Amino acid sequence: MRGIWTTDHIRQAEERLLAGTLEGALMRRAAHGVAIQAAAMLDEHAGAVAGRSAVLLVGAGNNGGDALWAGAFLRKRGVGVAAVLLAPEKAHTQGLAALKRSGGRVLSVEESPQWIASADLVVDGIVGIAARGPLRPDAAALVDHIAAPVLAVDLPSGVEPDTGAVEGPAVSANRTVTFGARKPVHVLNPERCGDVVLVDIGLSGELGEPDLFQLDVADVAAAWPMPGPSDDKYTQGVTGVAAGSATYPGAAVLASGSAVHATSGMVRYAGTSADVVRWHWPEIVATGSITDAGKVQAWVAGPGIGTGREGKDVLAAALGKGVPVCADADAITIIAHQPDVLDARDPGTPLVLTPHDGEFARLTGSPPGPDRVGAVRAAADRFNAVVLLKGHCTIVADPDGRVLVNAARGSWLATAGSGDVLSGLVGALLAAGLDPWLAAGVAADVHARAGQLGADGVPVSAAGVLAAIPDAVRQVRALKP
Ligand SMILES: NC(=O)C1=CN([C@@H]2O[C@H](COP(=O)(O)OP(=O)(O)OC[C@H]3O[C@@H](n4cnc5c(N)ncnc54)[C@H](OP(=O)(O)O)[C@@H]3O)[C@@H](O)[C@H]2O)[C@@H](O)CC1
Ligand SMILES: Nc1ncnc2c1ncn2[C@@H]1O[C@H](COP(=O)(O)OP(=O)(O)O)[C@@H](O)[C@H]1O
Ligand SMILES: [K+]
């Protein structure tokens, strides 16, 4: 698993590291990493390094200092470097001196727009981890002129470092060079960051427990259940699916079909769509009601069950079985409007809630807002449940405080019914006995892969995503280091 640290924790770690390091050494290490990536980008985008031009956007702090030092290094490789100083009196003294010594020039306010517009590369050193609020107007005006590829120093300016939120003009980088550890912005707003390159500045020993996690493909491969020689259909976990209704039989087909594709354990279906489910998935054991469904190791409850009396009874029955439950879609609305349904649950029994933004707002009383991680963490604590917040970037919080983030692989999953597919995956992994937080995270990873593989460059339906689940699992196993 990869760790991600908030800016507070990065700062504390940096302070400890700085205490035992020669002044300026860390910044030069960081800037050297920036210069290497800048040269690589010039080569990629402008066909050469020497003779090409870079403009540095330099803010009031050390982020600007990194850019200035990187400019001095680039001069040694024959790059024409010019700097725009947003706060000339605060610009990093040694960095500015180094740039001037190397033959770099400082632009006047008047000439800046033209230089920015015609540069081969723009290096964004406006603001780093000290950024607060949207870009100030003078910085925002500069960003407007950018036409060239952008290399962001530490993070793209204008994007909130700890939440990835953007409220106003902001830099969109092709690549971001960050130092010591990845910050939340890099996983919560990957589109603005471009490729993220991590430069080692010796910080790892000073970092404590990560604030967020991201699963590596090896984690997903290790967690995904595979049958062993002594397994049979029951030992791998039986998934129960309580979904669908006369109005929404498709939800039943998608959620139960997804569970069928996820693992080789057995799937039981309970509900009024039993006939159509059997027709689509002959391997499923289907009954009309959850009360006479056989034994399962986890339930998926909610997709398409409706939010009336019958839906509530189905959800209460699932919650009362003493096995983990993934409550999705209508189940979330029922919990939001009739929270007493949760009384059916033994608090020790794992519960995974999988809301999209609208369901999240219904459930908690307010939309996730710009701090999505904070909002999901609070909801997990409040409901004593794993909460998976859907969206372009999926966030999964455990009531114990662990949070993982799963990046999208395109926007292919923004299609009706894809959430039903996700709930089937979560349910199957719960039935297989995975830790609920990991089950939700691993399901989100494979769901995103299935979206990408099923789409293969053109829009895909939820049924297409479902059909690509085996390929997604195959991909995970093949990519495992
Ligand atoms: N510490 C280390 O060991 C290492 C640190 N390193 C580097 O240092 C960076 C952190 O540097 P930092 O702390 O100097 O602050 P930084 O992010 O440059 O901000 C500067 C100033 O910008 C302003 N400002 C704030 N918000 C703004 C906005 N929205 N729009 C416009 N301006 C805004 C505000 O100044 P004000 O105008 O309020 O005086 C703020 O003080 C870090 O990201 C990394 O690149 C590396 O060298 C490796 C070693
Ligand atoms: N723009 C997007 N990019 C990537 N994934 C998305 C996007 N929008 C939605 N998704 C994903 O698609 C799924 C949609 O689920 P949901 O909203 O419950 O749909 P439905 O109710 O139609 O099944 C979720 O897994 C969500 O994370
Ligand atoms: K920056």
Automatic annotation (TrEMBL):
Binding annotation for K(+): 63, 124, 157
Keywords tagged on the record: ATP-binding, Isomerase, Kinase, Lyase, Metal-binding, Multifunctional enzyme, NAD, NADP, Nucleotide-binding, Potassium, Transferase
Residue positions binding (6S)-NADPHX: 62-66, 128-134, 154, 251, 304, 356, 420
EC number, UniProt record: 4.2.1.136, 5.1.99.6
Cofactor note: Binds 1 potassium ion per subunit.
Residue ranges the record marks as coiled coil: none
GO BP terms, alphabetized: metabolite repair; nicotinamide nucleotide metabolic process
UniProt KW Heme keyword: no
Cofactor names: Mg(2+); K(+)
Molecular functions (GO terms): ADP-dependent NAD(P)H-hydrate dehydratase activity; ATP binding; kinase activity; metal ion binding; NAD(P)HX epimerase activity
Catalytic activity: (6R)-NADHX = (6S)-NADHX; (6R)-NADPHX = (6S)-NADPHX; (6S)-NADPHX + ADP = AMP + phosphate + NADPH + H(+); (6S)-NADHX + ADP = AMP + phosphate + NADH + H(+)
UniProt xrefs under Pfam families: Carb_kinase, YjeF_N
Keyword Isomerase: yes
Annotated binding of AMP, by residue: 390-394, 419
Segment forming the signal sequence: none
Assembly mode: Homotetramer.
Family recorded in the similarity comment: Belongs to the NnrD/CARKD family. Belongs to the NnrE/AIBP family.
Function of the protein: Bifunctional enzyme that catalyzes the epimerization of the S- and R-forms of NAD(P)HX and the dehydration of the S-form of NAD(P)HX at the expense of ADP, which is converted to AMP. This allows the repair of both epimers of NAD(P)HX, a damaged form of NAD(P)H that is a result of enzymatic or heat-dependent hydration.
Protein name from the UniProt record: Bifunctional NAD(P)H-hydrate repair enzyme
Organism: Prauserella marina
Species classification: Bacteria, Bacillati, Actinomycetota, Actinomycetes, Pseudonocardiales
